[in-house]
Amino acid sequence: MAAAVIILVLALIMVLFVFRIDKVDIKGTSRVSDDTIRQEIKLDQAHDSSLLLWLLNKRANYSDNDMIRSISVRLTSPRNVLVTVVEQDLVGGIKSGDTYSYFNDKGVVILQQNKAQADIPLVSGVDVKKASTGSKLETSNDDTMSDLTDIVSVMSDYKLSVDSVESVGDGKYTAHYNKVIINLGRNSYMDEKISELASLADKLKGLSGTLHLEDYDATKDSIIFTKSADETETSTETSAETSVETSAETSAETSGDNSDYSGDNGSGDGSDYSGDNGSGDGSDYSGDNGSGDNSDNGSDVSDGGEDTSGDGSAAQDNAY
What we know:
Layout: H1 2-18, E1 23-27, H2 34-40, H3 50-56, E2 68-77, E3 80-87, E4 92-96, E5 99-103, E6 109-113, E7 122-124, E8 128-130, E9 138-139, H4 142-157, E10 164-169, E11 172-177, E12 180-186, H5 190-204, E13 209-212, E14 224-227, H6 239-242, E15 261-263, E16 279-281, E17 291-293, H7 299-303, E18 316-319
Parallel strand pairs: 1-3, 7-10, 12-13, 16-17
Antiparallel strand pairs: 2-3, 4-5, 5-6, 8-9, 10-11, 11-12, 13-14, 14-18, 15-18
């Protein structure tokens, strides 16, 4: 009996010595601090034993922390511990007074702070009645808030980072992406609209104007982009900016009787570009109040000269 006790004590000492913590690696955190994770996994209660730490977290529940979805604790060696954290996804935020409340795809508030969180869109168009961490947002219009949550959730799925999404009334929504206003229209075909937006995001960088997705559905072949009045073409612009194909467009759709890019009151007839009040007739380019007759000035478009838009035009429409 005494010998068995001695063997047990020696075995315990050996286990404590072999499974002594040398290093704890914490992975997957961006908003939750490492100190918070150490508290969650009860590191101080493990008494430097990696085996005991693993046992303490084998069936642990971390639901008390609204910022954490899950924590995994495993031993990469008897002395090294790897802690993998999955944080709650923040899909959007809303400001009320000086407080920013950030919520998940269920509309539950996960984080509240007095500064804006980078790369997470803010929603607007509803008033906040009550916002508390761990509870669903209460607003002046829960149906509108539900739509806003759905929209930013889909954007999060596509890894699309816009600046804001707002309700503009009558069940319609608008997003802001740098200097581009995106008319999303009603909450229908929203997945298709945002998928198309994600595919065009890189081409919209540096542009200023309005992208029209309000009437978009899977049957549409092109998307209209209207440049702002102060948007002018520079030498770095190419013909791809005046006529950008979507995945649904074919070569037959990007060349035809009508021009892909026309200014205000301009019409194309076999021409690739027409300015204000100008029309093309067998020509590749026509300027203000002028028409081409079997002339070929198409290189002026791809060169992006300053004279590619007619005087007095407030905006230009691109077919994407």
